[in-house]
Amino acid sequence: xxxxxxxxxxxxxxxxxxxxxxxxxxxxxxxxxxxxxxxxxxxxxxxxxxxxxxxxxxxxxxxxxxxxxxxxxxxxxxxxxxxxxxxxxxxxxxxxxxxxxxxxxxxxxxxx
Length: 112
Description:
alpha+beta; globular
């Protein structure tokens, strides 16, 4: 990971290039709030906005953007999760979610 400065202005571009976003299922939709700013995450892209029917909503305090920039998205998510600062809300059953997102199982270490 090459350290960069990540802000609300460039987080969508940074995350759109990440392996996590590239590896999402084609039909997957995640709603991500960074602070109070909403983003829609789909395969290969993240953009500001509100998703109509997301599979999952994540809430990440804005101050974790500095961790994301310094150490990468996996570390930022892991630290927020360990600190109980990461909000997670599933909108579908866990079985159907796990099946739909099974290709992302390789990232489960990011949640500790």
